[in-house]
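Lecture notes, unit on protein representations.

Consider one protein chain, 63 amino acids long.
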Amino acid sequence: MIEELQSLVNKEIQIASALETIQGTLVSVDGTAVTLRTSELFGYESGSYAIIQLRFISYIRLL
């Protein structure tokens, strides 16, 4: 799964977890988390970064 996610780096994606859905540009992927540069969303300023643990992700969708 990590290799597939790494192929999406610098692409616009949407990530859903049990608590929220976040949209942004995938910046990095490691063995435990992904980092997104977020779009303007409630709770995130434009250009902020969100780090989401892989174990909490329900789905990832390419936009």
